[in-house]
Amino acid sequence: MSATTLSTASVQHAGLVRPILTSAVLGVFLIFAAGFASSDALHAATHDTRHATGFPCH
Length: 58
Fold this sequence. Notes:
mainly alpha; transmembrane; transmembrane helix; membrane
């Protein structure tokens, strides 16, 4: 494996770190936000989307 190949691989890896961390932080935030919100607030917030996608919620 040449130095150029290693350099390219590390640049590609570095480019993936930010989106992965952003997704993880957003996911954790959403889980905690859903966990601490009252169930009525969650139901009202997702009600129209659930029906629009055909997912039953009642």
